[in-house]
Amino acid sequence: MSIDPQWARSMADERGSVESALVLLPLMILVLSILQIAMGVLHRDLGDASAQSSVIKSTLYSPLGRSPLTLMSTQGLTQLSAVPLSGGGNIYIGKRVERSPSLTPLLPEGDNFFSTGIAMGEHS
């Protein structure tokens, strides 16, 4: 079985491999950066929805006579506050520090941000 000499010459000629490698690296960084931005936006939306849900559940389902702040602290909310209203009741605010993972070497630490939830409690 013999090898076709023209086929062997075309396989030995690799005149485009360096150029394609030079294009591939920036293209890979671009794709990963776009995925990082999309994942960051999604993670921020999910973090905000989770914090809002925790504050609302704590405000609605806290037992009478107990502050919703104690229930919020068990759900991972860290910066808690209750602002009294003039007509009675409180506005409850809870914040949580969220961290989204990193996909690119351009953002090695990931993205840290605050998620905030706000709810109004009618009983004090």
Would you give an account of this structure?
This protein is of the alpha+beta class. The protein has one domain. 48% of the residues lie in helices and 23% in strands. It is built from three helices and three strands; from the N terminus they run αααβββ. It has helices spanning 5-12, 17-61, 68-74; strands at residues 79-84, 90-100, 111-121. Strands 1-2-3 form a three-stranded antiparallel sheet, with helices on one face. A hairpin with a 5-residue loop joins β1 (79-84) and β2. α2 (17-61) runs antiparallel to α3 (68-74). The longest helix has 45 residues, at 17-61. The N and C termini lie far apart (91 Å). The model has no long low-confidence stretch (mean pLDDT 82).
Pick out its properties.
124 residues; alpha+beta; 3-stranded antiparallel β-sheet; 3 helices; 23% strand; rod-shaped
Large-scale geometry: rod-shaped
What is the averaged pLDDT score? 82
Class by helix and strand content?
alpha+beta
Number of strands: 3
Q: Terminal Cα separation, in Å?
A: 91 Å
- Enumerate the spans where pLDDT stays under 50 for 5 or more consecutive residues: none
Q: What's the number of structural domains? A: 1
Q: List the total number of helices.
A: 3
Fraction in helix: 40-55%
Strand content: 15-25%
Concise synopsis of the structure shown:
With 124 residues, this protein is of the alpha+beta class. The protein is 48% helix and 23% strand.
